[in-house]
Structure formats: C-alpha cells, structure tokens
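USER: I would love a firmer grasp of how sequence relates to backbone shape in proteins. This is the protein in question:
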Amino acid sequence: MHVLDELDHRLVSVLREDGRAPISKLAAILGISRATVQSRLDRLIATGAVLGFTVRFRQDHDVRAIRAIMMIEVTGKSTAAVIRQLGGLPELHSLHTTNGTWDLIAEIRAESLADFDRVLREVRTIDGVLNSETSILLSSV
C-alpha cells in the first residue's frame, strides 16, 4: 500500500474540487511540472488510492429526488447479513458503519414519497434490523 505524502494529498484535494481539471491546470495550481502531476496521478490510480473520477451534482437541482438519512440499529451479530440485504436496494445511495446507538447510517434517494415509503418499509422488515430513525434532508446549505 502506497503512503500518500503531502503533495499527493494536495493533488487529491484539487481533484476533489475539479476532477476534470487538465494536467496543465493541476500543475499550475500545485506549482509543479506537468510530468510530475501525471506520474503522481498515474501512481495514485495504479495503487488504488484513486478509484476513479465522478461528477458532483448539486442535490438541490434535482427537485424530484427525496433524500434522507436513515440510522439503523442491528441485533446481535447480524450486521454483515443486514448490509448484504441493504445492498440490494437501488435507492440506497451510500451505507456506513458507525459507533454509538446506531450501527449503520444509510443515505436514501427516492423519486417519490411512495417510493420513499416503500424503501422505509423494506428496510424495517429486514431480519436483524431492530430499530431505525429517518430524517428527510430538506435543503443543502
């Protein structure tokens, strides 16, 4: 596993802001040569530190989408089984393990209240889900 140095961290930070930035722009921002940027980027990709490039979409531009955060409490040692079942829900945008009262935190995206309601019911009927609490995300600030 490659250990990232300060320059790698700066490069990743710039790419998080603009994943489509050309090598020449990255070099200018970082104050290094284009060849150095290219070799660093190639190494980050080859080692798996950078998994890919994606679009960051402003959530408030998709007025059809209902977004929510669901905290999930799991019984006993059933976390792995619950995670496998949750993985089958296309409305589940991301899933995180956590500490404290809740074992899992899921980000849900649904196109309608009916879809959202269905997803909540499906999650709550999964064997091993003991309790859940959901908050709809109203606006991004």
Remarks:
- The chain has two domains: 6-46, 59-137.
